[in-house]
Amino acid sequence: MRNHQTSSMPSTLEGKVVRFSDKIAYTYHDMDDAVRAGILKERDIPREIGEIIGYSPRERLNNFIHDIVTQSKGTDDVRMSDDVELGMRNLRRFMYDKVYSNSVAKCEETKAVALVKTLYEYFMKHTNALPKFFVELGLQGEPREKVVCDYISSMTDRFAISLYEKIYIPKFWMGY
Fold it and tell me: What is the C-alpha radius of gyration for the chain, rounded to an integer number of angstroms?
């Protein structure tokens, strides 16, 4: 947890893999979400970033993963090249400037918080509606609050929205 930032590196190989995987995954998904929301277009990525890490989601993911594999192969370390790491940092800075502090995105943030809170309250009252794996965690002594939080944190945005609609929106309103 202490090294879960861009500037620090975990001391174990497993921690390094998790760190890189996490940074790649959330940058990838945040960019995808911003494009789907109309906040960004792929062509908005500055040339100096795109030339290093790619312009499309597929190119970026491919470049990040191949760079880590290439840089780590034959070593006792998990690492990324300086150029690609700088490209990732610059993409994250770009995302902060254009997406995370964007007024349109910020307006949606309160809706997302309400959605998660509503799902949490629902599953706290209806633990029997949790998937079997999470019900079993509760039966093994895990606190209900933790089980519900674990379930919700495992959801993608799309799944959480779909589940919310399934629970709270009448089907005839959805055109079913």
Answer: 20
- What's the domain count of the chain? 2
Q: Is residue 8 part of a domain?
A: no
Q: Which of 40, 73, 101 is the last residue of a domain?
A: 101
Euclidean distance between CA atoms 128 and 114, whole angstroms:
22
* Residue 174 pLDDT exceeds 50: yes
Q: Measuring CA to CA, which residue among 93, 113, 89, 109 is closest to residue 20?
A: 89
> Could you report the per-residue pLDDT of 132-169, keeping only the tens digit for each?
999 888 889 899 999 999 999 999 888 999 999 999 99
CA pair distance 5, 9, nearest whole angstrom? 8
| Residues whose CB falls within 8 Å of the CB of residue 56, separated by 6 or more in sequence, listed in order | 42
Residue identified by tokens 């174990």 is 12
- The whole-model pTM stands at 0.65
Read off the DSSP letter of residue 98: I
